[in-house]
Specification:
By secondary structure, the protein is mainly alpha-helical. It has 2 domains: 32 residues; 112 residues, Cytochrome c/b562 (Four Helix Bundle (Hemerythrin (Met), subunit A), Up-down Bundle). It contains 5 helices and no strands. α2 packs antiparallel against α3 and α3 packs antiparallel against α4. The structure holds protoporphyrin IX containing FE. The site of protoporphyrin IX containing FE has 22 residues, from α2, α4 and α5.
Length: 154
């Protein structure tokens, strides 16, 4: 009869669980972070989310003259979401020193006004059938989004 030496299961299991925990921890932390951002569901975040969905949809329709009506409807939605966004103050304003608050809010509003102006340009180009130019304008909006978020949603 052969005697098989069995490796005790406990250390192996412990090591496996420890490994899993090490891999899972950063992922869980990131998920919690994301969840925290989502939890801060401010009216501004909701309007921005709407703007984001509209922007994504516009990317799919803007180049196609046959989708003009759909594109125009989406631009109307984008105006609404942008104007709503402009009515609120960004969450980060709470952390801005009192002396800089007014200037920061003005800067935010100015930038959102720029977003609205860009959507107006987009609408004119789509109505004129200048779909390639409209696609370029949409790219400008992406740049505004990136700059705006860097400054006001760091
Ligand atoms: C087409 C342009 C833009 C798009 C598509 C867009 C989209 C978004 C999206 C999807 C979010 C995340 C919302 C959520 O938490 O679920 C967001 C958040 C935010 N965006 Fe924009 N954004 C745009 C332009 C801008 C600009 C120009 C500014 C600043 C002037 C800005 C300021 C912010 C701020 C401050 C938040 C965080 C909300 C808060 O503070 O409560 N965004 N945006």
């Amino acid at each position: 009869m052969t005697t098989r030496t069995r490796r005790p299961l406990f250390p192996t299991l412990t090591a496996a669980l420890l490994g899993l925990a090490l891999v899972a921890a950063p992922t869980t932390a990131r998920a919690a972070d994301k969840e925290k951002k989502k939890d801060a569901d401010t009216p501004l975040a909701k309007a921005m989310e709407e703007l984001g969905d509209t922007y994504k949809a516009l990317k799919k329709t803007v180049k196609d003259p046959a989708k003009k009506e759909e594109t125009i409807k989406l631009i109307d939605k984008a105006y609404q979401a942008s104007v709503t966004s402009k009515l609120y103050a960004p969450t980060m304003l709470a952390k801005v020193p009192e002396a800089d608050k007014a200037k920061t809010l003005d800067g935010y509003r100015k930038m959102m006004a720029g977003v609205i102006a860009e959507f107006a340009k987009l609408e004119q180009q789509v109505l004129d059938g200048k779909n390639d130019e409209a696609a370029e304008t949409l790219k400008n909006l992406k740049q505004l989004e990136d700059d705006g978020h860097e400054k006001y949603n760091p």
